[in-house]
Write a structure and sequence with these properties.
Layout: H1 6-21, H2 24-31, H3 35-49, E1 54-56, E2 61-63, H4 65-74, H5 77-88, E3 95-101, H6 103-110, H7 114-120, E4 124-130, E5 144-148, E6 156-170, H8 172-178, H9 184-187, E7 191-195, E8 204-208, E9 211-215, E10 219-223, H10 226-234, E11 240-243, H11 248-252, E12 257-259, E13 263-264, E14 267-275, H12 282-293
Parallel strand pairs: 3-4, 3-5, 7-10
Antiparallel strand pairs: 1-2, 5-14, 6-11, 6-12, 6-14, 8-9, 8-13
Amino acid sequence: MSTVDISKLRHLAIFAKVVECSSFAAAARKLNTSRSRVSEQVAQLEAEIGVSLFHRTTRQISLTGEGKRIYAEVKVLPTVLESVNDLISKDEPMGRVCLSLAHNIAHSHILPILDRFQEAYPNVYLDMKVTDQTSDLISEEIDLAIRTGIPKDSSMISRLLHEESLGIFASPQYLDRTGTPNTILELERHRWVSLYQASPNGSQKLYFDGKATTLVPQSYDTCNSPMTIHRMLLNGLGIGLLLRSSVRKEVTNGLLVPILPEVSGEQLSVTLMYPSKKQVPKRTRCLIDFLLSARLFR
């Protein structure tokens, strides 16, 4: 009965990771090792099987014909070996986790608790992709994403982190210039700063006493970044909707003023998303569990 050469399987898995990442350097970062070590192990694999897997130039790599055929057979190996290692390993989590999230959530809710995560898991390293655009978790090799809204992609697992209605806010400077609105009708006469993705025409859906009403401001600016809207309101550029939990400090310090607290905007859901896998790597699982227990929005 033949035995499986585990070292060759690992070399094949490293080769597959290089193909996935399109470079030795990117694969090395994913594997938490050096570029030279990855290159050495792929070269060793080529020597063992007697074929060249890559065409190499100073700028890029591309698969040879043999490399393409072999990759088609072994491309699942990195995930398989990672799952086996997690199942049999008693060691603490280690490696890199890629987390995608928006600027406002990164600054207001994640940065303040990262020291606790580092203390609990000193050998887990984060690759944070901070962007207000929606990223493709599969094609961009993202392990986790924090998103607003309930995802509709059935290939993703989603865990609810927080639900909260938006509140109306403005700076004292703005209110000194324009006066403080006391009714929903008076809100229409003010200049609004609106999130473009939610309302490109500036209209605002508001709720009062369980009833919905649509507000159409006479003047408004739009922006596609919640964090920039936050800054625009702080700078006295208008009235807008923000997560109440994100501006507690500014309200306490008198930098922002709640307007008509009994009126709210849409309810916003914040979810943690990750690709559906039978076995989530231990390093990813520890970040998932940490974020779910961290009470980020309290």
